[in-house]
Amino acid sequence: MDLNLTGRRAVVTGASRGIGAAIARVLADEGCSLDLVARDAPTLRSLAEEISTGYGVAARVHTVDLRDPDAVAALAEQVGSIDILVNNAGDIPGGPLDTLDDHAWRHAFDLKVLGYIGLTRHIYAGMKQRGGGVIVNNIGASAERFDATYIAGCTGNAALTAFTRTLGGASLLDGIRVVGVSPGPVDTERIVALLRSFAEARLGDADRYAELTARFPRGRAATPREIADTVAFLASDRSAYTSGAVLTVDGGMTAASSV
Asked: Which amino acids are annotated catalytic?
Protein backbone atom coordinates (compact mmCIF):
# COMPACT_ATOMS: atom_id res chain seq x y z
CA MET A 1 0.00 0.00 0.00
CA ASP A 2 1.37 3.38 -1.02
CA LEU A 3 0.97 5.67 1.99
CA ASN A 4 1.56 8.80 -0.11
CA LEU A 5 4.09 10.16 2.37
CA THR A 6 6.79 11.00 -0.16
CA GLY A 7 8.07 14.53 0.28
CA ARG A 8 6.66 15.10 3.74
CA ARG A 9 8.73 16.15 6.73
CA ALA A 10 8.54 14.30 10.03
CA VAL A 11 9.99 14.88 13.47
CA VAL A 12 10.64 11.73 15.52
CA THR A 13 11.66 12.08 19.16
CA GLY A 14 13.51 9.35 21.02
CA ALA A 15 14.80 8.34 17.60
CA SER A 16 18.22 6.97 18.49
CA ARG A 17 17.14 3.40 19.22
CA GLY A 18 14.28 0.94 19.68
CA ILE A 19 10.83 1.93 18.45
CA GLY A 20 11.94 5.47 17.59
CA ALA A 21 14.70 4.28 15.27
CA ALA A 22 12.28 1.82 13.65
CA ILE A 23 9.75 4.60 13.08
CA ALA A 24 12.44 6.77 11.51
CA ARG A 25 13.47 4.00 9.12
CA VAL A 26 9.89 3.21 8.07
CA LEU A 27 9.03 6.87 7.45
CA ALA A 28 12.27 7.29 5.48
CA ASP A 29 11.40 4.23 3.41
CA GLU A 30 8.04 5.87 2.68
CA GLY A 31 9.84 8.98 1.38
CA CYS A 32 9.72 11.34 4.37
CA SER A 33 12.59 13.64 5.20
CA LEU A 34 13.35 13.50 8.90
CA ASP A 35 14.32 15.53 11.92
CA LEU A 36 15.68 13.05 14.44
CA VAL A 37 15.62 14.01 18.12
CA ALA A 38 17.37 12.33 21.07
CA ARG A 39 20.07 12.92 23.65
CA ASP A 40 22.54 10.34 22.30
CA ALA A 41 24.31 12.37 19.63
CA PRO A 42 26.70 9.71 18.23
CA THR A 43 23.95 7.10 17.81
CA LEU A 44 21.63 9.69 16.31
CA ARG A 45 24.26 10.82 13.78
CA SER A 46 24.90 7.21 12.80
CA LEU A 47 21.19 6.65 12.18
CA ALA A 48 20.91 9.87 10.17
CA GLU A 49 23.80 8.77 7.95
CA GLU A 50 22.23 5.34 7.50
CA ILE A 51 18.91 6.90 6.52
CA SER A 52 20.41 9.44 4.13
CA THR A 53 22.52 6.79 2.42
CA GLY A 54 20.03 3.94 2.45
CA TYR A 55 16.79 5.77 1.65
CA GLY A 56 17.95 8.88 -0.19
CA VAL A 57 16.12 11.34 2.04
CA ALA A 58 17.39 14.18 4.21
CA ALA A 59 17.86 13.45 7.91
CA ARG A 60 18.76 16.20 10.35
CA VAL A 61 19.96 15.58 13.89
CA HIS A 62 18.84 17.50 16.99
CA THR A 63 20.52 16.62 20.28
CA VAL A 64 17.91 17.82 22.77
CA ASP A 65 16.87 17.08 26.34
CA LEU A 66 13.09 17.22 26.06
CA ARG A 67 12.81 17.63 29.82
CA ASP A 68 13.94 21.25 29.35
CA PRO A 69 11.01 23.48 28.28
CA ASP A 70 13.37 26.05 26.75
CA ALA A 71 15.05 23.33 24.69
CA VAL A 72 11.64 22.11 23.52
CA ALA A 73 10.69 25.60 22.36
CA ALA A 74 14.03 25.98 20.59
CA LEU A 75 13.57 22.61 18.87
CA ALA A 76 10.16 23.62 17.55
CA GLU A 77 11.71 26.80 16.15
CA GLN A 78 14.56 24.85 14.52
CA VAL A 79 12.40 22.27 12.76
CA GLY A 80 10.01 24.91 11.45
CA SER A 81 7.34 23.73 9.03
CA ILE A 82 6.68 20.00 9.40
CA ASP A 83 3.91 17.64 8.38
CA ILE A 84 4.22 14.90 11.01
CA LEU A 85 5.27 14.89 14.66
CA VAL A 86 5.90 11.54 16.34
CA ASN A 87 6.27 11.88 20.11
CA ASN A 88 8.16 8.82 21.25
CA ALA A 89 10.82 9.76 23.82
CA GLY A 90 10.29 8.26 27.26
CA ASP A 91 11.99 6.30 30.02
CA ILE A 92 9.43 5.88 32.82
CA PRO A 93 10.89 3.43 35.36
CA GLY A 94 9.26 0.30 36.66
CA GLY A 95 8.52 -0.31 40.31
CA PRO A 96 5.68 -0.11 42.83
CA LEU A 97 4.74 3.06 44.70
CA ASP A 98 7.07 2.52 47.65
CA THR A 99 10.18 2.29 45.42
CA LEU A 100 9.70 5.56 43.52
CA ASP A 101 10.51 8.86 45.18
CA ASP A 102 9.46 12.36 44.08
CA HIS A 103 12.51 12.75 41.86
CA ALA A 104 11.75 9.51 39.99
CA TRP A 105 8.16 10.58 39.28
CA ARG A 106 9.09 14.11 38.19
CA HIS A 107 12.07 12.98 36.12
CA ALA A 108 9.88 10.46 34.28
CA PHE A 109 6.92 12.76 33.71
CA ASP A 110 9.08 15.71 32.62
CA LEU A 111 10.15 13.67 29.60
CA LYS A 112 7.27 11.48 28.55
CA VAL A 113 4.23 13.38 29.77
CA LEU A 114 5.21 17.07 29.88
CA GLY A 115 7.70 16.55 27.05
CA TYR A 116 4.96 15.24 24.76
CA ILE A 117 2.57 17.99 25.77
CA GLY A 118 5.13 20.79 25.49
CA LEU A 119 6.40 19.83 22.03
CA THR A 120 2.85 19.22 20.83
CA ARG A 121 1.80 22.72 21.94
CA HIS A 122 4.57 24.35 19.90
CA ILE A 123 4.24 22.15 16.81
CA TYR A 124 0.43 22.27 16.87
CA ALA A 125 0.51 26.07 16.72
CA GLY A 126 2.57 25.98 13.53
CA MET A 127 0.41 23.26 11.98
CA LYS A 128 -2.71 25.26 12.78
CA GLN A 129 -1.29 28.33 11.11
CA ARG A 130 -0.50 26.28 7.97
CA GLY A 131 -3.84 24.44 8.07
CA GLY A 132 -2.76 20.84 8.52
CA GLY A 133 -0.58 18.16 10.02
CA VAL A 134 -0.55 14.92 11.99
CA ILE A 135 0.64 14.26 15.53
CA VAL A 136 1.19 10.65 16.60
CA ASN A 137 1.84 9.88 20.27
CA ASN A 138 3.53 6.59 21.10
CA ILE A 139 2.01 5.86 24.50
CA GLY A 140 1.81 2.35 25.97
CA ALA A 141 -0.80 -0.29 26.69
CA SER A 142 -0.23 0.08 30.44
CA ALA A 143 -2.60 3.05 30.11
CA GLU A 144 -5.36 0.43 30.03
CA ARG A 145 -3.75 -2.66 31.56
CA PHE A 146 -2.91 -1.58 35.08
CA ASP A 147 -0.01 -3.09 36.98
CA ALA A 148 1.01 -1.94 40.46
CA THR A 149 4.64 -2.87 39.71
CA TYR A 150 4.64 -0.29 36.88
CA ILE A 151 2.56 2.37 38.58
CA ALA A 152 4.37 5.39 37.15
CA GLY A 153 4.10 4.06 33.61
CA CYS A 154 0.41 3.25 33.97
CA THR A 155 -0.28 6.72 35.33
CA GLY A 156 1.78 8.62 32.77
CA ASN A 157 0.43 6.65 29.83
CA ALA A 158 -3.15 7.09 31.02
CA ALA A 159 -2.55 10.86 31.12
CA LEU A 160 -1.20 10.82 27.56
CA THR A 161 -4.15 8.74 26.38
CA ALA A 162 -6.52 11.36 27.79
CA PHE A 163 -4.43 14.15 26.24
CA THR A 164 -4.45 12.46 22.82
CA ARG A 165 -8.16 11.74 22.81
CA THR A 166 -9.11 15.17 24.12
CA LEU A 167 -6.94 17.13 21.70
CA GLY A 168 -7.69 14.83 18.78
CA GLY A 169 -11.41 15.15 19.36
CA ALA A 170 -11.30 18.79 18.33
CA SER A 171 -8.14 19.07 16.22
CA LEU A 172 -9.77 18.39 12.85
CA LEU A 173 -11.39 21.80 13.19
CA ASP A 174 -7.83 23.09 12.68
CA GLY A 175 -7.06 20.59 9.91
CA ILE A 176 -4.86 18.53 12.26
CA ARG A 177 -5.16 14.90 13.26
CA VAL A 178 -3.94 13.75 16.69
CA VAL A 179 -3.73 9.99 17.23
CA GLY A 180 -1.94 7.53 19.45
CA VAL A 181 -0.40 4.07 19.42
CA SER A 182 -0.26 2.06 22.63
CA PRO A 183 2.14 -0.86 22.30
CA GLY A 184 2.27 -3.75 24.70
CA PRO A 185 5.70 -5.31 25.31
CA VAL A 186 8.09 -4.65 22.43
CA ASP A 187 11.44 -6.34 21.85
CA THR A 188 13.72 -3.46 22.84
CA GLU A 189 16.53 -3.11 25.38
CA ARG A 190 14.34 -1.00 27.64
CA ILE A 191 11.46 -3.49 27.68
CA VAL A 192 13.82 -6.37 28.41
CA ALA A 193 15.11 -4.37 31.40
CA LEU A 194 11.52 -3.80 32.59
CA LEU A 195 10.69 -7.48 32.14
CA ARG A 196 13.70 -8.38 34.23
CA SER A 197 12.43 -6.11 37.01
CA PHE A 198 8.96 -7.67 36.75
CA ALA A 199 10.49 -11.17 36.91
CA GLU A 200 12.40 -10.15 40.02
CA ALA A 201 9.18 -8.87 41.64
CA ARG A 202 6.93 -11.76 40.61
CA LEU A 203 9.22 -14.76 40.24
CA GLY A 204 12.05 -13.79 42.57
CA ASP A 205 14.66 -14.01 39.81
CA ALA A 206 15.33 -11.38 37.14
CA ASP A 207 16.90 -13.98 34.85
CA ARG A 208 13.53 -15.72 34.57
CA TYR A 209 12.09 -12.89 32.44
CA ALA A 210 11.90 -15.23 29.43
CA GLU A 211 9.14 -17.11 31.27
CA LEU A 212 7.04 -13.95 31.10
CA THR A 213 7.78 -13.51 27.39
CA ALA A 214 6.69 -17.07 26.69
CA ARG A 215 3.20 -16.17 27.95
CA PHE A 216 2.79 -13.38 25.40
CA PRO A 217 0.65 -13.90 22.26
CA ARG A 218 2.65 -15.95 19.74
CA GLY A 219 5.20 -16.51 22.50
CA ARG A 220 7.01 -13.23 21.87
CA ALA A 221 6.93 -9.49 22.26
CA ALA A 222 6.07 -7.25 19.31
CA THR A 223 8.89 -6.16 17.05
CA PRO A 224 9.75 -2.45 16.78
CA ARG A 225 8.91 -2.66 13.07
CA GLU A 226 5.34 -3.79 13.85
CA ILE A 227 4.81 -0.64 15.91
CA ALA A 228 6.56 1.56 13.36
CA ASP A 229 4.34 0.31 10.53
CA THR A 230 1.27 1.21 12.60
CA VAL A 231 2.62 4.71 13.24
CA ALA A 232 3.32 5.24 9.53
CA PHE A 233 -0.19 4.19 8.57
CA LEU A 234 -1.81 6.47 11.16
CA ALA A 235 0.39 9.36 9.97
CA SER A 236 -0.69 8.86 6.37
CA ASP A 237 -3.71 10.01 4.39
CA ARG A 238 -4.85 6.38 4.32
CA SER A 239 -5.98 7.13 7.88
CA ALA A 240 -7.37 10.58 7.09
CA TYR A 241 -10.61 10.13 9.04
CA THR A 242 -8.88 9.01 12.24
CA SER A 243 -8.37 11.50 15.07
CA GLY A 244 -8.75 11.36 18.83
CA ALA A 245 -8.16 7.61 18.73
CA VAL A 246 -5.51 5.45 20.40
CA LEU A 247 -4.77 2.08 18.81
CA THR A 248 -3.60 -0.63 21.20
CA VAL A 249 -1.07 -3.00 19.62
CA ASP A 250 -0.41 -5.73 22.15
CA GLY A 251 -1.50 -9.01 20.57
CA GLY A 252 -4.85 -8.80 22.37
CA MET A 253 -3.43 -8.87 25.91
CA THR A 254 -5.45 -5.88 27.10
CA ALA A 255 -8.63 -7.28 25.58
CA ALA A 256 -7.98 -10.69 27.14
CA SER A 257 -7.41 -9.22 30.59
CA SER A 258 -10.81 -7.50 30.48
CA VAL A 259 -12.74 -10.67 29.76
From this structure: 150
